[in-house]
């Protein structure tokens, strides 16, 4: 029973379900419409259906890994709790002052629409007392002011309380005392302490992260409880693990306690899955390209592992949580095409048709032209999807695109081509952001597309950037769900420790890291990870004195750690990234320990390469627009493409969860792991 593991990814349009059975190596896929309002209904429905198709009962599942957008949606849709915040005296306007930053470039600040503060001033309460930056008590905590602050927040209707006091990362005693008073004065009112959620400096980011955790906690708790109840109703008693933003896994209880760590749950799974597939194909430098129905996520992996950042944004708010480094734009298959009333120019997105009503071709009442409709008009998408279970309304797609074309004075196929080219240009900007803007040449990377629409657009993007091969996984439409199954249990523990390397006593860093390692070990105990499957990794965030950013430096061996080694490692990393080093030595900023619990790996054995002739997989032809007219293009069944087969573009490869477009002048070859590798003609 434990051999069967299920990955579930909830997207804006579809919920993807992947069932892997380690006993026979079988993989089953299912895409079902996301149920708006209560996404757990779609999750339970998809689980039940894929078990029915596999001929098993839900009770025979060994583990369930789930990526969720519940926390993110609560923020974007303003459905979180009413949070009151307790701060030091004089810091009542912490969220209003924020970072005093406006976006560029050039005159961008002139039209910047500043977002509303995360918490209104009426829900900000001040208390007297102060800790110094070194953790010393500068002013005792005034308990009477704390009681008055709690009464103020209760009267204002606060449904949860966040406590964020100065320098609590160095000494949390005042915060813990405030938390105890809140529990006494207002029993039952949830309290979040910043020292528990993020024990690091930078007051604004720490306050936002802790407040965001409290803001989404009730919604996330309702969703996870409803999901667990739904799974129990169908007798799916397997352990439910939730995917973190950094691609790791955590238990249901951990997700309820710190839901802020699930903000980028779905994108993280996709990047992990893409890195796994690319390593099997022999590529470690990859750009991942996840194009779904509502948005597109891109990320770069340099050494076969997803890059982890410790600051991300949800909406306009910065949060200091470990996350896969992903850039997101509002461009997807459901992005709506329109004509600007001001300029008369074509626009695509960020508005999306979503799952309901969806693109016009879905036949669910949608009337606005989307990227999916444009691909139908151009012939890039066949009239039937999901293995024939979904028939597209080609006439509705033509009618929707025609209405846009009338405003532009263009024909229907020309309008569709303009829509696709414009969305491609938007996505190229995101791909350049994770490569060129960071000083890396895009043509040194391979491109791994996934999501429902990624493989349709990947060849065109690679042709512009030169990032070949395009590696289309065997299951590109549900790769995020596959990524969940190859993710490890993971959590990170950190403490700010600002000290010049030259001023640190020998052994002091190792002692502090060991303490963090004990916290990581306790987490792995709670998660039930066996001792043989554990690993604790250590790192230190370092910078030059007075720099405003840090670099993470891995520490391989605490017993052999020396200050000279740490300084040299930082200098080498800084020179590698920025091309220069500075005299005077470095300083430590934050120490980290990451607890990792290994999960069983998915075995994908290589198969021998056969003959290159792909005629056995050919299913016919389909008319495709080439800029001047429609021409018949060969179509292929992905399930019948065997390792070693090679096909010339233009061609369309159809499968249950995605469609791949191979452009003229390119070839696609099937490798030993059944990946489709697209390269310029003659290099297969």
Automatic annotation (TrEMBL):
Q: Give the record's GO biological process terms.
A: glutathione metabolic process
Provide the Acetophenone carboxylase-like C-terminal domain boundaries: 509-674
> Residue limits of the Hydantoinase A/oxoprolinase domain?
206-492
Q: Name one GO cellular component term.
A: cytosol
What residues does the Hydantoinase/oxoprolinase N-terminal domain cover?
5-184
Q: Which residues cross the membrane?
A: none
Keywords carried by this UniProt record? Ligase
Origin organism lineage:
Bacteria, Bacillati, Actinomycetota, Thermoleophilia, Solirubrobacterales
Is Ligase one of the keywords UniProt gives this record? yes
Q: Name one GO molecular function term.
A: ligase activity
UniProt cross-references to InterPro entries, sorted A to Z: ACX-like_C, ATPase_NBD, Hydant_A_N, Hydantoinase_A, Oxoprolinase-like
Record flagged with keyword Lipid metabolism: no
Its Enzyme Commission number(s) read 6.4.1.8
Q: What is this protein called?
A: Acetophenone carboxylase gamma subunit
């Amino acid at each position: 029973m434990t051999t069967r593991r299920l990955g579930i990814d909830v997207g804006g349009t579809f919920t993807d379900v992947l069932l892997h059975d380690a006993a026979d190596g079988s993989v089953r896929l299912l895409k079902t419409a996301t149920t708006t309002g209560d996404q757990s209904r779609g999750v339970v429905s998809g689980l039940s259906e894929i078990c029915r198709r596999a001929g098993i009962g839900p009770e025979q599942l060994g583990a369930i890994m789930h990526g969720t957008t519940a926390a993110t949606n609560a923020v974007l849709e303003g459905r979180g709790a009413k949070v009151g915040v307790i701060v030091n005296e004089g810091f009542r306007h912490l969220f209003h002052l924020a970072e005093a930053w406006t976006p560029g470039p050039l005159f961008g600040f002139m039209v910047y629409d500043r977002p509303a503060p995360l918490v209104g001033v009426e829900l900000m309460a001040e208390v007297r007392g102060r800790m110094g930056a070194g953790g010393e008590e500068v002013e005792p905590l005034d308990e009477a002011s704390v009681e008055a602050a709690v009464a103020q927040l209760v009267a204002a209707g606060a449904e949860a309380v966040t406590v964020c006091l100065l320098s609590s990362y160095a000494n949390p005693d005042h915060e813990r005392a405030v938390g105890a008073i809140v529990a006494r004065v207002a029993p039952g009112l949830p309290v979040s302490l910043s020292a528990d959620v993020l024990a690091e400096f930078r007051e604004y980011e720490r306050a936002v992260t802790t407040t965001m955790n409290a803001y989404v906690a009730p919604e996330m708790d309702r969703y996870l409880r409803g999901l667990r109840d739904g799974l129990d109703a169908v007798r799916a008693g397997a352990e439910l693990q939730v995917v973190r933003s950094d691609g790791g896994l955590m238990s249901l209880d951990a997700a309820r306690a710190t839901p802020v760590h699930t903000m980028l749950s779905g994108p993280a799974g996709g990047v992990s899955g893409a890195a796994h597939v690319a390593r099997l194909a022999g590529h470690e430098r990859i750009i991942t390209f996840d194009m779904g129905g509502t948005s597109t996520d891109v990320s770069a992996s340099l050494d076969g592992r997803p890059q982890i950042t410790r600051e991300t944004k949800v909406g306009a708010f910065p949060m200091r949580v470990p996350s896969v480094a992903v850039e997101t734009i509002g461009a997807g298959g459901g992005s709506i095409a329109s004509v600007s009333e001001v300029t008369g120019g074509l626009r695509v997105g960020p508005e999306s048709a979503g799952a309901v009503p969806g693109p016009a071709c879905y036949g669910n009442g949608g009337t606005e032209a989307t990227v999916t409709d444009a691909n139908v008009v151009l012939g890039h998408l066949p009239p039937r999807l999901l293995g024939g279970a979904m028939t597209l309304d080609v006439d509705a797609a033509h009618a929707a695109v025609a209405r846009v074309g009338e405003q532009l004075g263009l024909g229907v196929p020309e309008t569709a081509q303009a829509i696709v080219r414009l969305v491609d240009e938007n996505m190229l900007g995101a791909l350049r952001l994770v490569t060129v803007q960071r000083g890396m040449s895009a043509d040194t990377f391979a491109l791994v597309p996934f999501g429902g629409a990624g493989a349709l657009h990947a060849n065109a993007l690679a042709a512009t950037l030169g990032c070949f091969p395009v590696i289309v996984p065997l299951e590109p439409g549900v790769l995020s769900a596959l990524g969940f199954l190859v993710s490890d249990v993971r959590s990170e523990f950190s403490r700010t420790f600002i000290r010049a390397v030259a001023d640190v006593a020998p052994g002091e860093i190792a002692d502090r890291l060991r303490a963090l390692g004990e916290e990581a070990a306790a987490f792995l105990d709670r998660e039930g990870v066996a001792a043989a499957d554990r690993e604790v990794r250590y790192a230190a965030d370092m910078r030059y004195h007075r720099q405003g950013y840090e670099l993470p430096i891995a520490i391989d061996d605490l017993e052999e750690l020396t200050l000279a080694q740490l300084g040299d490692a930082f200098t080498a990393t800084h020179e590698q990234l920025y091309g220069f080093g500075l005299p005077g030595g470095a300083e430590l900023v934050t120490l980290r320990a990451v607890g990792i619990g290994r999960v069983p790996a998915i075995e994908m054995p290589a198969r021998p390469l056969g003959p290159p002739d792909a005629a056995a997989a050919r299913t016919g032809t389909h008319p495709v627009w080439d800029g001047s007219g429609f021409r018949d293009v060969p179509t292929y069944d992905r399930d019948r493409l065997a390792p070693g087969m090679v096909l010339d573009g233009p061609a369309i490869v159809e499968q249950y969860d995605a469609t791949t477009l191979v452009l003229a002048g390119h070839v696609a070859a099937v490798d030993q792991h059944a990946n489709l590798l697209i390269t310029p003609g003659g290099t297969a």
